[in-house]
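Support reply, case 0932

Customer input (verbatim):
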Amino acid sequence: MSGHSKWSTIKHKKGAADAKRGKLFTKLIKEIVIAAKGGADIENNAKLRTAVLKARAANMPKDNIDKAIKKGAGETGANDYVELIYEGYAPGGVGLIIETLSDNKNRTAANVKSILTKAGGQLATTGAVSYQFKRMGVAIFSKEQVNAEELEELAIEIGAEDVIIEEESIEVTIEPNQFGSFLDALETAKIPVLNAEITMISDQKVSLDKEKTLKVLNLIERLEDDDDVQTVSSNLEIDSQMDLS
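Our regenerated output:
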């Protein structure tokens, strides 16, 4: 999603955030476990560093983070999670990339297909959607909480590809291999971030009317509510003036 699309989505889901805090921790722990397969040293494992910084930003207790790292590194028993990526379409032809971590491939595939079908969407063959996307680090900030000039200077210094300043929000897009360094810099500068993730973004946008936009957002929310789904990326374009209430 574009900057204002992502910001609009965050505002749309904000009301249920507290109720989903436990589920968020579960997803972050799984992300740390998978990342730690590449080594338990966060200084030499960029993927793990990013996952840990996201967990810290969500105020996850240090003990939970440490346990997840040890599990992923094989220090505390088996780690059966595998990464599975599904491609699909939401109503209106919106492309979806659904990234999951699962210990049961059949269950995950069945759940994703069921959620899509019930909402009027469908699974797509591998490559049918993903060719429109590229993987990037994306961080979203509230303009009320940050100094826009300071943030922009920091982002450019780290090597951000793009900084989009909207009426209410700021979005920074940066290459994945630089994302961990950017999050480190934010933490050092005590700059609060609303949302930070390595995700798939697309230049081929799809714009819909309010009714269809809400249907797509609700579908994405239902997908993200599934325990196995880590993140859902789409090429939905949302006008910053659209009232999603």
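We compared this against your earlier run and they match. Two observations from our side: The chain has three domains: 17-72, 82-131+204-237, 133-202. The mean pLDDT is 87. Please reopen the case if you see a mismatch on your end.
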